[in-house]
Amino acid sequence: MATIFSKIISREIPADIVYEDEQVLAFRDINPQAPIHVLIIPKKEIPTINDIQPEDEALVGKLYTTAAKLAKEWGVAEDGYRVVMNCNQQAGQTVYHIHLHMLAGKPLGWPPYTEVMKQG
Ligand code: DGP
């Protein structure tokens, strides 16, 4: 089912897009929890982690390689960064189009959910 992220992919609604190729799109989160907070999404509509199929494995892997590529470009790869993907309501998923949160630019603390998931 189409979500707001489909409308970002199709440019029906604006977003601060930082990377795009044929398979993935990355844009800044509208409610950033860190100096760098981007969402990396597949262009293919996959609602949750539970819906990822074996044929999607390379595509999902690409979300991670895209995060690493951006981290290197932005100079945060060595200091470190966090990637998180929420699944369903108890994890705080609000948009049902899988997305990798990439957070960087400050100490993120531990456990991770104190920063990232308190909204949920
Ligand atoms: P999650 O809770 O894991 O489903 O994260 C959804 C994230 O999506 C949340 O951090 C806010 C962000 N978000 C929701 N709507 C929009 C939007 O229209 N534009 C942008 N850039 N981000 C959005």
TrEMBL record:
Gene3D superfamilies named among the record's database cross-references: HIT-like
Source species: Balneatrix alpica
Database matches in Pfam families: HIT
Positions of short motif Histidine triad motif: 97-101
PROSITE patterns referenced in this protein's UniProt entry, alphabetically: HIT_1 (PS00892), HIT_2 (PS51084)
InterPro entries: Histidine_triad_CS (IPR019808), Histidine_triad_HIT (IPR001310), HIT-like (IPR011146), HIT-like_sf (IPR036265)
TM stretches of this protein: none
Protein name per the record: Histidine triad nucleotide-binding protein
Domain HIT stretches: 4-113
